[in-house]
Write the structure tokens for this entry.
Amino acid sequence: MTAWLSRRLGDDCVAKLQSLGEQDLYCDDSKWLDLLQNHTEESLVILVADLMDDIRLAKIRTYHGCRVLDAGVYHREGLKRNDPSKLKSAVRQMVSTEAEFAPLRPHLEKRLAVFDAADDHEGTTRDEGRVHVGFDDQELLDHCGAYALYGSEWVCALLGPLGHGPLRHRGVPTILQIDLPASWLSAEEIEGVCRDMLQEWIHHAANRRDWTPWLATSFILRRDIPPKMVTSHYHPEVINDPLYRLTPRKSGAVVCPHCAPNS
């Protein structure tokens, strides 16, 4: 970001911004962008537009939290959009064949019917045809850990508290790294990314923090992500559980069959 701003605004302007000194502003305060505007002759609107033009040609590193038996499936098949019918079949198979879910078997069909009726009544589709990715993997560990701890949000809600333990014991918590073409995002999403980048740059340049705040930016995609975009994955050792007041939970397993030969 510093190199891009130096080319755009000049080294002297960037040096002036870096010497502003600490500002009494929260890291996510939009006034950081006002500060940037007040100390440059360039219009912020034009600066954002130019950065958007360059970002459109780039790839954006994003992350997806999940719990899976073998993360290798994503490197082989990619990350698929949500399909409620397949999800329902997978739940039936899991509950009917895996011993830990036995207490849930007598009530599963009734709970599925209740959920289907609620979807019909409210006109919801359980995010059908969508897949979510986030800009910051730390958010998926500190604040949104349910995906890595329990897997599918809908399955977790369907099975209720009785299913929490079995879901946490099944598979391996996984964070996928996905290098997403910026061209897949809408103009509004790219603008948001650019404003976030500029805001964090001026915040860091002025306050000289030795930490970077997590970013809550996420993207909703309506297409499958091919295997070539899933560039890596890892298995976190500790995840905060949002269903239990952000209690830190240590992972029972940090290796899946895909990465076991390399561990």
Q: What stands out?
A: The radius of gyration is 22 Å.
